[in-house]
């Protein structure tokens, strides 16, 4: 990479003399601030190309500062704390395996093995045993691992299993792998009970999100919004078919109690210990249309016939509401 003209001085004191001698100015002769501005404007593929020019540019182009915006712009919406922990686990496990002769984990690995979620049973990165494939903890390394599809990360999928009617207006945890060829994802849903792991291909970006709360799908979410819920509020509630199943998040709204005449001037539903929840994508009379939860002593409620309802989170952002409305089924469900 060379410059034919310069309107400023750099490491070369006399540009005219170099030009007369048929010399050329390397991009490394640019002032630090100018070079940084150039690198900052490069897209990811150009950053990788520039990093292959020489060791000096490689060190510069791998800097987290230049990759943070690329990571945020492309992956920020579906990468959450769980995915970040999974990446740190992978980096630590790879480093440990390369330094351990007998596979005995070091101190960091022993700690991570305690706090790492145990409900994924398959490796998160495939085919990483090739030479020079060991990742570091840089953002560039993480970005490229995501792009390649070798790194499986936890996120959530709306209307899982190609919009199966049994999962309409829900969002479930899954492992995801990116496919650059189709710009879609493969999803692996964890096994539960006697059911094997379910796999879904060609999942588009718009059906994905980062988990809004850092709660395992097998744990009850501790609700912090119950006292403020009132009719008309939009919510998501945990629900699972039985105790062996993981929770999914299901969309609904806060409704009025049967004793309320729905007159806004006289409604006192928000003062009751009982909160009525409505799932209006189900037909009137359906057993899935209504349920109630206790506002003061909320815990998992339900039975083997109707499933079990867990924690509640209030949905307030316009983006989240827009997503649920976009996913609304065209036909009323029974």
TrEMBL record:
<feature type="domain" description="F-box">
    <location>
        <begin position="24"/>
        <end position="70"/>
    </location>
</feature>
<dbReference type="Pfam" id="PF00646">
    <property type="entry name" value="F-box"/>
</dbReference>
<dbReference type="InterPro" id="IPR001810">
    <property type="entry name" value="F-box_dom"/>
</dbReference>
<protein>
    <recommendedName>
        <fullName>F-box domain-containing protein</fullName>
    </recommendedName>
</protein>
<dbReference type="InterPro" id="IPR036047">
    <property type="entry name" value="F-box-like_dom_sf"/>
</dbReference>
